[in-house]
Every structure is written in C-alpha cells, then in structure tokens.
Amino acid sequence: MTIEVQKYDLQDYSIFESSKEYDYYLWHPEDRYIILGRANNPEASLETDLVEADQVKVYKRPSGGETVILTPNTLVISVKVKIGNELNTQKYFKEINDKIMDALSTLGVKDLSMKGISDISIGDKKILGSSIYLRKKTLFYHAVLNISESIEVISKYLKHPTKEPDYRKGRSHKEFVTSLLTEGYKLSVKDLIPALNTSLSLD
Amino acid sequence: MKYIFKFPDIGEGLDEGTIVEWLVKKGQHVESGDSLVTMETDKVVADIPSPKTGTLVTLFGKEGETIHVGDALVEIEIEGVEGEAAIAEVEKGSDMEAIEEEGAGVVGTLEIAGNSAILSSSNEGVDDAVEDKREVKTKSLATPVSRAVAKDLGVDINNVKGTGPAGRVMKDDILRYAESGSKPKVSSSSASVGSVEQLVEVEPLSQMRKTIAKNMIQSKHNAAHMTVFEEVEISELDRIRKKYKDQYAADGTKLTYLAFIIKATALSLKKFKSLNSEMDMENSNMIYKKYYNIGIAIDTEKGLVVPVIKNADKLSIVEIAAEIQNLSEKARTGKLAMSDFKDGTFTITSYGSIGGLFAVPVINYPQAGILGIGRISKQPVVKDDKLDIGLVLPLSLAVDHRIADGGDATRFINSIMGYLAEPVTLIF
Prior knowledge:
The complex is a heterodimer.
Chain A: E1 5-7, E2 22-27, E3 33-36, H1 42-45, H2 48-53, E4 57-60, E5 68-70, E6 74-82, H3 89-106, E7 112-115, E8 119-122, E9 125-135, E10 138-146, H4 151-157, H5 173-176, H6 189-201
Helix pairs in contact in A: 3-6
Chain B: E1 2-6, E2 16-22, E3 29-30, E4 35-40, E5 44-49, E6 54-59, E7 66-68, E8 72-77, H1 83-92, E9 99-101, E10 105-107, H2 126-130, H3 144-153, H4 171-179, H5 188-193, H6 196-199, H7 207-222, E11 225-233, H8 235-250, H9 257-271, E12 277-280, E13 285-288, E14 294-300, E15 303-305, E16 308-309, H10 317-332, H11 338-341, E17 346-350, E18 369-373, E19 377-383, E20 386-400, H12 406-421
Parallel strand pairs in B: 14-17, 17-18
Antiparallel strand pairs in B: 1-8, 2-4, 2-7, 3-6, 4-5, 6-8, 9-10, 11-20, 12-13, 14-15, 14-16, 18-20, 19-20
Helix pairs in contact in B: 3-4, 9-10, 9-12
C-alpha cells in the first residue's frame, strides 16, 4: 500500500493568505497528523506500516525541515510576516523563537535556548522545531511545541531524520526530544495560549 | 552590461541549497523583486527575488540540483548600462536588502562575477552561531503597556530593571527610570573640549570603499600572506626606455617602467605556475591558469580599481604600455567596463610613483600573489668590484603561502629581476 500524502491545508495555513502585514495562529490539533517536510517522502521518513495501520493522516508542507507529528498534546504556532525582498530568514527564526521563549519564561520554564538552526531546547533536548516558507515576499513560520506528547508516539511513526542538527549528535528520538511535561512543567494549552498571545502580540 | 546573480546565504549560515523550481525562463524580462527560483535549505523554502531589472540570459542549474552559496544562479542583461554606469551598478550591488545579523553573516548579498568578489563565508557550526542561551539574553520581559510607555519616553527597555513577576518590567519601572535620568551623558571632560560634532567628521562609506574593505578582509581571512623583498638594478632597462620613449611618445604611447615589469612578470608566471593559480578548497583542487592576465592597481579619486591587461605574455612591451595608458585613462574618467575587471590571474601595485619603497601588499584574493613596485632611485651599487651609481627598483612580492612555498616565491622574484636587469631577454 502507498500512503496518501495530502497537500498541507490545515487551519493554521489560512493566515498565509490573509492580507495582514503580521499575523499569527495558535492551533491545538484535535487529532494526530504527520507533516512531511517539502523534501521528505513517506518511505524514508515514516514507519509506513504503523502509520497505515493507525490511519494517521499524512500531509506535506511547503516549507523545509524534517517530518513532524502533530497531536492533541502539542501546540502549533504559526506566524506570517510580509518582509519584501529581505532574505534574512535566520533573523525571523530568532525573533519569533525569542518571543516563544519569552512566553515560556513567564510561565517559569528555565534553561531555554535556541539550538541548531531553529529549534528551541531545554538543556540539550528539543521541545520545539520550526521551519520557514518564504513566497511572494511573505514569510510563513511554523513550529510545533511538545507540551506533553510521549516520545514513544514520535518514535512509533517517525524514522530517524535524514538530516539532523549538530547538537543532536546521532541521538534517537527518545534521547533527543522532550516535552514540557517530561521536564517537569505541568502546563496546559490554557496556560500557554495567553502567554503566547501576549508575547506574539508585541512589536 | 551582464550581471551574474549568485545564490545568497539566506540566513541559516548553511552553504548549500537545492533548486526546487525555476519560476522564470531564459529570455524572460524580469523586474527587480520578481521571484526567480524556489530554493530549499535545511529549514527554509524560499523564493529568491531578482536583484535587478533586465532580461535573463542564462539560468544556472537544474531543478533538484544542489548548489552552493556563491554559485551563479542567473545571468541578467541589464539594458543600457555601460561604462561609468556599469561601475556604479557594480558598486551599488543590489536593490535587495543586505542585512548584517550577528552570528548569521551577511545575507542577501549579491555579487558581480569576475571582480574577485567572494560571498561572505557562511557560519559553519550553527550551534555556536545560533545558540542564544537564556542566561546571557538581555531582552527584558515587559508588559505591552510598559513597552509602549518606554517607546514614548525614548527609554531602552532592556536597560530597565523589572520589579514585576519574573523580573518583568512594569510601567512604574519605566517611569522611575525616565525620572532618574538614566540616560547616556556626555562626560564633563569631553564636554569641556568640545562637542562630538566638532571633534570628528562622520561620512557614510561609499559602495566602492565598502567593496574594497570587504575584499581586503576576504583576502586577509582566507590567504596565508608571506612577503619577499628584493632590489634590482635596472640601469640597462632605463637606458633602453630612454632611448625609445620619445619615439613611441610621438606615436602617442608612453613607454613606462611598468610596461617592462608587467612583461617580466607575465613571462615569469609562465615558468612558475603556482604563482598563476588559485586554490579551490571547496573541491580540494588547485587551479593552474594557462592565461596570464595582469591586474594593475590604479589609484583614482574614488578609490582603488584593478583593471586587467589580458594575455600580457603575448603582448609586446609597447602594446602593454598602450594598454596601461588606455586602462588608466578609462579609470580616471570612470569609463571602465565590467569586462575590464574580469579574469585577472596576478596583480601588480605600483605605489612607488607616489613614494613608498617597500610594502606588504594585500593579495587580490583568490589570486596567488601580488607584486609591489617601489620608488626607483639612484643608489650606490657594486659593478665589477667597483662602486658605481645604479638605478635601483625595490620589489615586494606577497604570495599566498598556502599555494606557494618560500622557494617558489624567491625563484619567481629572481626570474622577474633577471628579466628587468637584462631587459633584452624580454624580447626573446
């Protein structure tokens, strides 16, 4: 059987088409979705038998980066900015990740840092991955924050990525990825959304 | 003029990307800002906009191909831009925003091919470049209200100590800070001497100065500079020059010492291939060039330019003299074209006409060497065991020690000196 890969049209993508200069969208998925990076294919990135058996929907996003899984225990953070001819994507990774880290800091999360190209980590373990799609002078950033998803779920569906940041150092999902809950922060979406609203609303 | 647009670092500090999709076709007219190609790097898929308005002459690379930062993406024919305007276009670089981001290198930088310009290298080791530990982060936590108040009062919120939850800066913190006058003050000692405006003059950098600065730093960062100094007695060359200079002056050609030196250098380069080469670290190759194009550094009112005398080994001394004259005139009148700067393989800088004896010239990277010509002067010399008066030319040869060993450099400069000491050998 071949896994059906759908074009990314989940609800956060709607802000890309909006006319606002700056917009953001916080989305708490109600189901499990697997999102392939633009260059990923199911065979190389997924445990296809298990994905099929569990009937997890698979989408391919237009941006780069590796495959991620969205679940009700994660939060999707999407930001859209009109940037003209500028190509400095790292600046936007940093600015937006800074805002997210500000929000998490206000909730008491410690030892946060930006690692690799665009990850946010606690210590040397990843809690958020992000990527950027830049088209028609509009930048679309999206990230997945792991609130409380078990790493077993990630390991179940996703193979070891084809590319990895230096700081991963070959570690497995279980050794490399963590969640706010695992790190001792019992935060819910109800805690996170107001803090992110405040931070992402700032200039 | 033709403009080569190279794949810029799009900010991740990575040095390669994949061509996802061409959005234009060869022969198509594009406006500045039109999307040319969709590129993918590790975390980014981005449309790359055209830096110029013009017609696309060449699209480099196929969809699915991985290219490196600095590789040519497209060649754009910019209609009606020649001569001085072409130089201005080179200096202008691009209509795109070139942004310097700490730890991310220069991004969005566009370059013209053939002027020895190299894109800033990307920052490898992204961990170090990007990592931004919370402990050292100075951005303050603050409420929207306090940020707005700080903005109104012109207060840098990051300098204000917060008294709110988790150190958050509150509105009252801003007001207290503003009232306390914790703003930069001019010290009384400097105030007594005069204002800053009186003591210094600030002038924006010209594009040419920026380009010179960038190329110099590029060279110093990438090449291993080593310099050899020598003196050569050129009385015989002087005698020949004087004998023929009036004859050629009548034909409108100024027979300069530099013409002889260029010829001697070109012939010596043919004997020592390492000095006419460049190192391709990326592909672990040495590139030995079988053409001998000598750049000559010309001091103009706007700054230093280095046009190139092509195939100097094949030109006679008089033809070289005529070409020096031609390029110097174009440099002075701002009429050098892009083609005049292209494909140099070695450079000569002649500061002696102004007054210096020796120097440590900066290599025109990625070339392997540069020869500095000092001031010619009469000096006591020993000829046939007798003290005599000789005409002495000081030479300073800087080489990239990665490419040329000390022996190569010394043998090369000895060869040049041999030709100059016995100029008849330049003819045979």
